[in-house]
Every structure is written in structure tokens, then in C-alpha cells.
Design a protein that fits this description.
This protein is of the alpha+beta class and 338 residues long. About 9% of the residues have low confidence. The protein folds into 3 domains: 124 residues, Rossmann fold (3-Layer(aba) Sandwich); 127 residues, 2-Layer Sandwich (D-amino Acid Aminotransferase, Chain A, domain 1), CATH 3.30.470.20; 64 residues, 2-Layer Sandwich (Dna Ligase, domain 1), CATH 3.30.1490. It binds adenosine-5'-diphosphate (ADP) and magnesium ion. The site of magnesium ion has 3 residues, from loops.
């Protein structure tokens, strides 16, 4: 049966998406992606694919998913399957280095960033980088490895005392700290070239609350889990920065993203994070009367209608068979019959 195939890792983020699809009667199938397999010489199942694989999946004990999905996307696209946030988008999702370059290629201002691999290199980068600076993982998400340093001594201590947790690929970034003029960052949510909403995320609470793997505050920077931390932000859809974001997404085949920037006291806006596997904050959605996942569901619906026109015609006849909610754990592989 032709449907939307959802590649995911974190079940906790599924409910709003599933609701949006069921409300619109979009047929879907969930694929939990921490293992499985496929035959390179056989055709993938028919349908549209939505990549919701999280770059922080390794922190939930799912070590294999990111590499598996990276390879699976190549196979899907080889056979011409349309993937929402396909391989180019996913490459960016896994690399803040690539994000920085993609942003700068579009003329977007980013904070000065240096890459350091290996503890000696990280130490010497910490000597060179102007203060204050931030550390972060190249494969980010939920604030992994994000710490603020205002003096070199505390950075050295951090590296020496066992608090430092390396990026899964061993790539640490040291980045110029941008002091926000007001105590928030702005995150702009875009789906298929359309601004869905913009939010302010409070920066109060500081960086001492380290969102490390075992920390209770590990979802500190995740809009899905934040309560009271996120507020609607006013944004002009014709703002030049927004237009640059839309262009950057088009150039890099990114269908869905939440893009973050910080404005300093001079009015400079520095962009530093592109979240393809984005989540929408329920409080903000309720306040604005907007359903973010609804926009993704509508995109999937449009793509299914364009590629499989017969499916949409037949789905006007309500047919329970079309709404697959098979438990994710049963679907370990993608077979041509899915
Ligand atoms: N260069 C920076 N200057 C000031 N604050 C930053 C900077 N980079 C990140 N932050 C803060 O840390 C948070 C997490 O960093 P981010 O790069 O978005 O990582 P992640 O991909 O894990 O969300 C940001 O939302 C922001 O509050
Ligand atoms: Mg972020």
C-alpha cells in the first residue's frame, strides 16, 4: 500500500505528528530505525518518506540509527523515492560544520567557529580562541557539549576533571559566544518554503546547567519538552534573514527546519543551528493557534497526491485499512511490500 513512511528514533516526539496525519487521513507507517536491513538491488516500498531521525539518538542508547538512516536514504533516493529531509538535509543535520558553511554560502552571518579533534588540539584551541567562547558537539541536538567559558583556567579544568564528553564522531567545536541583547534566542520554523512560526527561547538559567547525557536538564534546548521557556516571537516573513533561510533550505533540499539565531546589542543576528528533525512547542502552538506538525502532514499529503494521484482519489472513500498504526517495534526492516 502506498503511504507515508516515517523513519524515526524517538517515540516521545511522535504523538503530534501521528495526530496531524490521522486528522488528515494520511496513510502512514512507522519505522523505528536502530537496526534492520535492505537489499540494495531491490526496489524500496512505494510511497513518500519522512526522515525524523534524531542526531542525538546515541544518547538514548540507539547507537546504530544515524549511520543506518544515512545509508538507507541513499538507497531510497537511488530508486527515485521522494524523501522529506533527504540525504543532503540529513548530512547537515549531523554536522554543525556543514551547517555553518551552508549558511555562510548564502551570505548569512554565523559565529566564528573552530574545529578541534583530539584532546591536545582541543586544549590548544582553548588557548587561542578569544574569550568568552562556547564548546559544542559537531553532531548536536539538545545542547550536547554546550558549555560557556569566560576564562582559560576553567576550560582546562573542564577537560581534565572528566566532565568533558566527546562528540560521537570526536569533533568538538569552539565558538565565539554571542551575548544576546535580550535574554532569548529566536528559532524560525519553516516547512516547504513557508514560515510556520517563530519562537523565543529563554537563555535565562545560563550554561552552568549542563545538558549532559545523564543530566535532568538534558532537553534544555528542545522545544518539545520545554514548559514556560518558549514564547511566540514576532517575525516579518519578508525579513531579509528569513528570505535567506528559505533560499538556503531550497539550495540544500531541506524541506523542514527550525533555524536558530541570536541578536547581539548591535543588532547583528548570528545564525548557529539548523534543526531538520524539529519539534514544535505545544504551549506556543496553542497560543498562536498553529499546528506545526499539521504543516508537515500537509506537505506529505501534497507529495503523495502528486506522485500517487490514484491513492488520494481512493482515500476519499474512508477505509480503515489505510491507517496503519502498527507498533513500531514490529517494523525492523523495510521490505518492498511495506
Ligand atoms: N555561539 C553562541 N553564542 C551564545 N549562545 C549560544 C551559541 N551557540 C549556542 N548557544 C546557546 O546554546 C544553545 C544550544 O546550542 P546549539 O548550537 O543550538 O546546539 P544544539 O544543536 O544541541 O541545540 C542555543 O540554543 C543557545 O542558547
Ligand atoms: Mg539548538
Amino acid at each position: 500500500m502506498t503511504k507515508l513512511h516515517i523513519l524515526y528514533e524517538n517515540e516521545a516526539w511522535l504523538a503530534p505528528l501521528v495526530k496531524a496525519l490521522e486528522d488528515r487521513k494520511v496513510p502512514y507507517l512507522l519505522h523505528f530505525m536502530n537496526g534492520g536491513g535492505f537489499d540494495l538491488t531491490s526496489e524500496p516500498p512505494e510511497g513518500i518518506f519522512l526522515n525524523r531521525m534524531s542526531p542525538s539518538s546515541h544518547t538514548r542508547g540507539h547507537q546504530r540509527g544515524v549511520r543506518y538512516v544515512s545509508e538507507l536514504l541513499n538507497w531510497l533516493q537511488f530508486y527515485g523515492r521522494r524523501v522529506i529531509n533527504g540525504s543532503t538535509a540529513f548530512d547537515l543535520e549531523l554536522s554543525k560544520v556543514k551547517q555553518d558553511l551552508a549558511l555562510r554560502r548564502q551570505g548569512i552571518l554565523t559565529p566564528h567557529t573552530i574545529v578541534a579533534v583530539g584532546i591536545d588540539e582541543i586544549k590548544s584551541a582553548g588557548q587561542e580562541m578569544p574569550l568568552p567562547f562556547i564548546t559544542k558537539h559537531n553532531q548536536g541536538g539538545k545542547g550536547l557539549g554546550v558549555r560557556l567559558f569566560s576564562d582559560r583556567h576553567s576550560f582546562e579544568e573542564y577537560l581534565a576533571n572528566g566532565e568533558f564528553v566527546d562528540d560521537p564522531g570526536g569533533i568538538t567545536l569552539l565558538q565565539e559566544y554571542i551575548e544576546p541583547h535580550e535574554p532569548h534566542i529566536t528559532r524560525v520554523e519553516i516547512v516547504a518554503g513557508e514560515v510556520v512560526m517563530a519562537i523565543h527561547s529563554s537563555t535565562e538559567g545560563g550554561f552552568e546547567l549542563c545538558p549532559a547525557v545523564d543530566c535532568e536538564d538534558e532537553e534544555l534546548f528542545c522545544p518539545a519538552s520545554g514548559v514556560g521557556k518558549f514564547r511566540p516571537a514576532k517575525i516579518d516573513v519578508k525579513d531579509s534573514l528569513i528570505l535567506q533561510y528559505i533560499q538556503m533550505m531550497e539550495v540544500n533540499n531541506i524541506d523542514v527546519a527550525g533555524i536558530e539565531f541570536i541578536e547581539d546589542s548591535q543588532g547583528n543576528r548570528y545564525t548557529y543551528d539548523i534543526n531538520g528533525t524539529t519539534n514544535y512547542n505545544a504551549e506556543v502552538e496553542a497560543e498562536l493557534g498553529i499546528e506545526g506538525m499539521g504543516k508537515i502532514a500537509e506537505l506529505a499529503e501534497r507529495l503523495l497526491a502528486a506522485e500517487y494521484p490514484k491513492l488520494i482519489q481512493s482515500s476519499t472513500v474512508t477505509n480503515g485499512e489505510q491507517f496503519t498504526t502498527a507498533p513500531a517495534a514490529e517494523i525492523r526492516t523495510l521490505s518492498p511490500n511495506d
